[in-house]
Structure formats: C-alpha cells, structure tokens
Amino acid sequence: MLKYKILIIFLLSVVFSQNGFTQFPIYKIFPSNVNQIEPLIVRHPTNPQMLFASSYTLNFSTLIRNEGCYLSTNGGVNWFGYDIINDGLPQFHNGDPGPIICPDGTLVLAHFQTFSAQSNRTYSNVSTNMGTNWTSPIQCFATTNEQLKSAITIDDIQSSSYFGRIYSVSCMALNPYVIIFSKSTDKGTSWDASLNQINSSISGRNSNGPNVTIGEAGQVYVAWASSRNTSPFNELGIGFAKSINGGANWSVNESIYDCNGIFSSQLSPWSIRVNSYPNLDVDRSGGARNGWIYIVTTEKNLAPAGSDPDVIMHRSSDGGNTWSAGIRVNQDALNNGKVQYFPAIEVDDAGGISIVYYDARNTSTGDSVQVYISRSLDGGNTWRDYLISSEKFYPQPVSLGGTGNQGDNIGIVSSGGKLYPVWMAKYPGSSVYQIWSSNIDLSTIGLNQISSEVPKGFELLQNYPNPFNPQTRIKYSIPKNSNVLIKLYNIQGKDIATLAEGIHTAGTYEINFNINDFSSVLSSGIYFYKLITDDLSLTRKMLLTK
Length: 546
Description:
This protein is mainly β. Among the domains are: 135 residues, no CATH class; 98 residues, Immunoglobulin-like, CATH 2.60.40. Helix content is 0%, strand content 45%. The strands form 9 sheets. Strands 1, 3, 4, 5, 6 and 7 form a 6-stranded antiparallel β-sheet that branches. Strands 2, 28, 29, 30 and 31 form a 5-stranded antiparallel β-sheet that branches. The protein has a 4-stranded antiparallel β-sheet with strand order 8-9-10-11, with no helix packed on it.
C-alpha cells in the first residue's frame, strides 16, 4: 500500500508586474522531480472542500508515463497524493488524465493506456479509499480503434434524473475522425457495451479535441474542433452536440461558428505544439444568465482576434441553438505580437466567468509567459485581466510527451467561493514541469452576491473603509430583478470605470474595489460611485488617500 505524502502548502508571494494587477499567492500542488503536464482539477459535487487534481506524469529516470493523483479535503490548504496511479500496470499508461469525484467520494481517473502493440485507448481506474488503491484499468469505449484527446465529466446536478452519471467523449482516429461517446452508471466500473458515435465530420475535415460539460438541468453538451484534415491541420470551426436524455439521443451541429485555430503554429520562439481545442462551461447559478453556454478557443487572423493568438469566447443563451459573434477576452493591446494560449473556462456558482491562460504580454521579446485570469461579471460583455503569476518561464517541449509537445491543456475550477486554477510551469531553477495553483477568493476580485434575501428597497451603502488605499468595499441592495450599473467618476465628473453591469437578481451585493485593478493611475482625491437602475440612481462619495 502506498503511503500518502502530506504536503503543507508553501505560499510564494507574487510581485506586482506592469499594470498593477491583483496579487495572489501561488504554490506547487505536489512538488517532485517528475514532469507534471496537462493538469486538470475538479471538485466534489456537494462538498466544496474536496478537490481532485491530476496530471500526465513523465519520469525521466524510469521512462514511465503515468498520471498523478493529488487531493485536498480542506479547500486547497493542504494536498496529498502521488505521481503514479499504481494499478499494477504503470508502464502502460499514456496520459490525457480526466479526474472525477463521485457524490459518495469515489475517485475515477480516465486516461490513455497502451497495452503491448495496441494503439491509445481510453481507460478508467476507480478508487474507493481516497486514492490509496485503484482498480485494474477499465476500457471506456467499445472499439479497438485508436483514440485521441479524451475528456470526462459527471452529472453533479442533484435535481437531475442522471445525477452521478459519468460521461466520456473522445476522438476516434479513423478517417474521417469523429467524436465518440460513452457513459457509466456505476461510478466508472463499467461503460457502454456498444460504440456511440456522435457526429460524422464535415467533408475534408476531422473532428478532434472534444470537451464535455453538464447543463443546468442535466443536459450533456459536447464541443469539438472541426479541423482541416490535410496540412496545416488547423481548426476551421467548432462543432457542438447536446443530449437532453442522458446521451441516448443527440442533436448535432458540425460547425456552430468559424474559427482560425493555431494547431500547427509551432508557436514562436518556442517551437512548441499548441492547439485551439474548445473548452466549455455552463452558467448554473440560477441567476439572470442561467443556462448560458460559453466556449473558448485560441485564434488569430480572424476578427475579433488579432494577428497574434488571442483568447476568443462565443456564447449561447438558447441551449446551443444559436451563438454570438466572437468576443476577445484578453485585454492587452490588439496586434501587439504577444501570444495567449491554452484557455480554460469556469463559470462559478454566482455566474461569474473566469478564464485562465498563458500570456506573453509582459515580456519585451515575447519569449516567456505568465499566467493570467480574465474575469467577466456580465456574461462576457466586459472583462478584467488579473495577473495570477508574475513568475515567468520559457515554454519548452517535454521529453516523452511527443514531438514539440508542452501538453494540451491547463485547468480551473471554482468551489466554496474560491477559484483554483492549475497550470504547468518550469520556473527558473527547476528542471521539470510542475503543477502550480492558487486559492483565489472571489470576493477579492470583483462582485460577490453576499445574500439572496430580498431587501425592502434599493440601497447604496457607504464604502468601507473610507478613506481608503488601495482597496475598499462597496455594498448595495436590489429588491427585485433589475438591470444594474455601478459607475465610478472623478471629482470633475469624468467616467473612470464600470464596477458592475448587468441584470441582478434580488439580494445584497458587495464589490471589492482595488485601484490596482485598473491600468489608469488613480490619484488621491474625492471620487463618486453611482448605482444606476431603470428605477433610480443613487450616489455616494469616497476619498482615496495615497
């Protein structure tokens, strides 16, 4: 029996970089001498304190490829686990991890596995004792054909008829590549006995890089890249499918919108292989945008993306029937030659959208990257960028990980009012990639609904503290569903910033206003903040002292 290695998180203070973005502590989830790439993180369906992260692990000494298992039972304060899933066959594992926590605490880890001369296939292992022991690998798809880029999710909607059901999707590498689907109704110990093909692919294209998530009422949503099937193999569109009956039937749209992906770019100056595989999530907050679907990719040379790769989001407010035009997420200057890639999206329990990605904007030559999160509180209409890690690293291909491969993804999850991004980085002084993370209190980076109790009327309270520097909290109450705008003005009446915008459900809200969140420098003096609704406007004064 493997013994748990208990880790006490060592917090690294992150130094402010240009533009003065919010400061967050970062830490290694599981320090080791093994490469940890393609990290993902999930939460328990009902226990916000339990988190499960995994990575594709590459051991240079033993030449073993495997998947890591890293757990926290106290909201990311402490972590334990190990870099190898010990199922008796560690030498046959081949990455692409997909972690799941079932309602009863059972752990499921999907991954690629290659036995003898067979090609990559998707398997799952199950643990009923917090990762101490694992079952033998269980094949997820009823096919002997090779699979590429799998993804997995669980129906965690307690009111859903399919609560606790696990879904897996993959790409079947048989021209034309198509998306296949499987489900488990017994916590990953068995899967569909027959092959379920979701789509057929557009002529001249392959379907690849699928992602899967659960809607607000238990719907299953799948998105994939519709890619050119000849060189340069770049992504030309995004396909989408949905099922409202647990995967029994599907409605399919082979291309919901055009894109210009970066699969074959070999990003300069690193010569690493990247992709524009879609990442999607759904608003399940119960608020004004409940049920909205969001998809993010990396694109270039197709508006609103510039000539360098940008993070682009599309959204649907009608269950995937129609989709918006693209929205540029990262707020650095357009066409500045600085790349953003590997976006991962999370919609939190209050409906806020957070997207984590690599970003080269703060390097003069664009040769290193940092980690940013862009956050929107109004369904993607407006965004603010937050620097998560001021540490920089030079992206490099990973040995044993495939030609030019840095990995295919990073991840993010929200739980208990916090964000937990995970990313792989080889910071100065390290010889291997490691999983890094941060515990980000959502109340410190924007709007937070602190009560759903219906107040008697509209109210805008005095900020506290006042005077302040560099941050203060602004609290207000909304007695009914309302279109709300919170604006900041200087003493001359100039519009400085929008602090909140969009439809609010009845309740009490709090804004954490930090002057370092804004690229423009705010000088000492008097400012006014105004609550504007369709019914009235309220204004209060505050004093910034520096």
